[in-house]
Amino acid sequence: MFVDRARITIKSGKGGDGAVTFRREPFVPEGGPDGGDGGKGGDVVFMADASLRTLMDFRYKRKYEAESGQNGMKKKRFGKKGEDLIIKVPPGTVVIDEESGLVMRDLLKAGDRFVAARGGKGGKGNVNFKNSVRQAPNFAEGGGFAKERSVVLELKLIADVGLVGFPNVGKSTILSVSTNSNPKIANYHFTTITPNLGVVSIFDDGFVMADIAGIIEGAHEGAGLGHEFLKHIERTKVLIHVVDISGSEGRNPIEDFDKINLELSLYNEKLSKKPQIVAANKMDMVDEEDEAYLAFKEYVEAKGIKVFPISAPINVGIHELLAAAAALLNKLALEQPEEEEEYQFFDFDRDDVEEDFKEIYTSVEEDGTYVVSGKQLRKIFDSTNFNDSGSLRYLYKYIEKKGALAALKDIGLEEGDTIKIFDYEFEYFEEY
């Protein structure tokens, strides 16, 4: 089964908490703090692996989570770093952040990798909070939060040559006689509902060819499986446009040729500008001097596109068609640099877990309670020992330093008013 789109949830590891411990040694009854730092949480990393061909595995497992960092320990020992989670995907996979719709990374080549969710930083142990005034800090810093997000994985085939055309014009047959691929072939529309790949060997060289499922009118708007089919053409370098020259189903070859090219241009203007050659298939049912064939050939070649008469089932004209495709690929390799797709990348590779902690927010509720909130504040709040005056003072100083008290005063805070931090409330006094 070919699976080219999947939605999964990823979550990095939480940072380990710093330790609150004190030296306990013989003859040192009141030893100082010696709590070590917590370990960093594991990252979630996507990596392109050449051994993979589909996104099928992601149909059965939808949640992926990296290991959390170990908590700090006594004797200033650091917690162990959480192990990174490596998620392997096929080359050609585009990773999209579902919430924003932005592309996180295009993993085009085997070995390409990037960090999609960074683990939380390890919290500092109480040894870091000792100073000349606070000799025995009875608190430590909690570990940084894990980062969780939903991502969409979208696989676009990487092929040198793409076979395009209406359903049932012979694309699968051309692929089968040109390569070692064995696509399903039958005389009804949409036999191919997923792209097939094969390797063409010619002139001691070769290229990858894809049979792109039949395109229909309205495909650019999603008719049929339009978007699923058309996106696989985006990375091909050369198009072989297959047309049923016999008109065996009452179709007009010239109209078919124009309609397919219109669908390509309406979906993405770049597709209509890709180098193209035409395979006039089913010539065993038409004479080469037939007026309809000659009119079609003249019409197409007037646009600068070469027409090759073929009969795929009996392997007539296939070698000439493939040789022309190979020559065109070689010409492109010499004339054009490798084209990169234009994506609106967002810098997901930064440590956005910690960046979000910089903000602190203030508001006032209907009952007159003043509220302070924020991600970094939540981290410090969770680390606060409310039975220890030094720990409470550290929390208060953080709020003051970040400008929250000044902001609360601007919206009416006065002495004796209640300040609420999550589920903790206290009265505000100027001389705290």
Descriptive overview:
There is one protein chain. By secondary structure, the chain is an alpha/beta fold. The protein has 3 domains: 155 residues, Spo0b-associated Gtp-binding Protein, Chain: A, CATH 2.70.210.12; 175 residues, 3-Layer(aba) Sandwich (Rossmann fold), CATH 3.40.50.300; 73 residues, GMP Synthetase, Chain A, domain 3, CATH 3.30.300.350. The chain is 22% helix and 22% strand. The chain is built from 10 helices and 18 strands. The strands form 4 sheets. A 6-stranded mixed sheet has the order 10-11-9-12-13-14, sandwiched between helices. Strands 3-1-8-5-6 form a 5-stranded mixed sheet, with no helix packed on it. Strands 15-16-17-18 form a 4-stranded mixed sheet. The radius of gyration is 32 Å and the shape is elongated. About 7% of the residues have low confidence. Its cofactor is Mg(2+).
Short description:
The chain is an alpha/beta fold and 432 residues long. Helix content is 22%, strand content 22%.
Largest sheet: 6 strands, mixed
Helix content: 10-25%
| pLDDT < 50 stretches | 183-193, 218-227, 350-357
> Can you tell me the overall shape?
elongated
CATH homologous superfamily of the largest domain - what is it?
Answer: P-loop containing nucleotide triphosphate hydrolases
Mean pLDDT: 82
State the separation between the terminal residues, measured CA to CA.
Answer: 67 Å
CATH architecture of the largest domain: 3-Layer(aba) Sandwich
Please tell me the total number of domains.
Answer: 3
| H and E string | EEEEEEEEEHEEHEHHEHEHHEEHHHEE
Estimated share of beta-strand residues: 15-25%
- Supply Rg: 32 Å
